[in-house]
Amino acid sequence: MNFLEDDYQDIREGVRALCATFPPEYHRKIDAERSYPEDFVDALTREGWMAALIPEEYGGSGLGLTEASVIMEEINRAGGNSGACHGQMYNMNTLVQHGSEAQRSRILPKLASGELRLQSMGVTEPTTGTDTTQLKTTAVKKGDRWVINGQKVWISRVQHSDLMILLARTTPLSEVKKKSEGLSIFLVDVKQAMAKGMTVRPIANMVNHETNELFFDELELPEDALIGEEGKGFKYILTGLNAERALIAAECIGDGYWFTDKVTEYVKERKVFGRPIGQNQGVQFPIAEAFIEIEAANLMRYKACALFDAGKPCGSEANMAKLLAAKASWEAANACLQFHGGFGFACEYDVERKFRETRLYQVAPISTNLILSYVAEHILGLPRSF
Ligand SMILES: Cc1cc2nc3c(=O)[nH]c(=O)nc-3n(C[C@H](O)[C@H](O)[C@H](O)COP(=O)(O)OP(=O)(O)OC[C@H]3O[C@@H](n4cnc5c(N)ncnc54)[C@H](O)[C@@H]3O)c2cc1C
């Protein structure tokens, strides 16, 4: 159930039909085994959903971020986890918008057909964290090669991706006017890189999210690995990050509806003290409140996507949508776990898995505090704190 009607029923029905062929047992097993949902991602690719944002001339369906967000929402709403594949959506957008014609025509048709995956984006570093412009990974031009040295952390889906977008400093911080200048993005062929200077070390973590430490030791990339203009990578990566935030807002909304649907059904059925627990207002109110918050977050998500699709600035809206949706899905997760009582902790109900999965989004891809500080300083004009 949700209150908002939208114009995307065809997409919703198509993705729902596919997701119905991957029942809860499938996702539960993948989670328990800490494996990758290859069959699921392959099916999404085969049916063309992963190519939503690829322009038609490159074999995709040429849809907007709004439609892509509906696809991601439906996966999470059906009990799956878009975290296994959402990288391709926002990364390909960076390539579509900032890649050269040669890069686009070489890569995009292969992404559309499923021959290649572009699931990874390497931004975060262990010593600088959220303070992205201070990152230490360098790319130095030597003849017709770029030589990469440094380290990244929490880089997701590298082991299930053929390509990765990497952010590195090409001009030393001391030589740029603004700290956001002098950063560049590169398209890295993962397998080739692993054979000549990139080491991948998996990080065991709370969710079944394949994520890694990366070490670069004199990794050589060809000249044409650079995406767009040298030194403008931070600006380019923000396009991808805004898309990522709007998509993850949609995923949280999908999670939120999954939790409210699941708990609503349960509290109608479960009888304690001779009546359904859902008859108690102490049970009803947290569920109703979470539902209201999900609906409200949904409005901001559509606004962020509409601005993005219109080519207008959407940083504030994408950030606010992500914050609202991550909070709403977390409230819904808490209510769902709480009112399942002990059964909420049993893996077979899927509540504990979805609870872990949705919790991530208050920290990654940007933490709640950093969104609050962005709004405080950039929208409200409060003094900068850092
Ligand atoms: C499962 C997972 C997958 C990820 N996947 C990727 C990926 O694919 N690619 C990638 O590049 N990154 C990825 N990340 C990294 C993620 O984007 C970062 O973890 C996140 O941005 C936070 O950065 P950090 O961990 O360095 O935290 P830090 O920057 O160390 O911050 C730690 C805490 O301190 C708070 N904090 C920091 N500074 C301030 C301040 N000035 N005011 C108030 N609070 C502050 C933050 O809000 C945060 O809660 C992933 C992370 C996880 C956990």
From TrEMBL:
Domain Acyl-CoA oxidase/dehydrogenase middle: start-end pairs: 120-218
Residues in Acyl-CoA dehydrogenase/oxidase N-terminal domain copies: 6-115
Gene3D superfamilies: Acyl-CoA dehydrogenase/oxidase, N-terminal domain (1.10.540.10), Butyryl-CoA Dehydrogenase, subunit A, domain 2 (2.40.110.10), Butyryl-CoA Dehydrogenase, subunit A, domain 3 (1.20.140.10)
Acyl-CoA dehydrogenase/oxidase C-terminal domain residues: 231-365
Entries under InterPro entries matching the protein: Acyl-CoA_DH_CS, Acyl-CoA_Oxase/DH_mid-dom, Acyl-CoA_Oxase/DH_mid-dom_sf, AcylCo_DH-like_C, AcylCo_DH/oxidase_C, AcylCoA_DH/ox_N, AcylCoA_DH/ox_N_sf, AcylCoA_DH/oxidase_NM_dom_sf
Keywords assigned: FAD, Flavoprotein, Oxidoreductase
GO molecular function per UniProt: acyl-CoA dehydrogenase activity; flavin adenine dinucleotide binding
Similarity comment text for this entry: Belongs to the acyl-CoA dehydrogenase family.
Entry protein name: Acyl-CoA/acyl-ACP dehydrogenase
Organism: Thetidibacter halocola
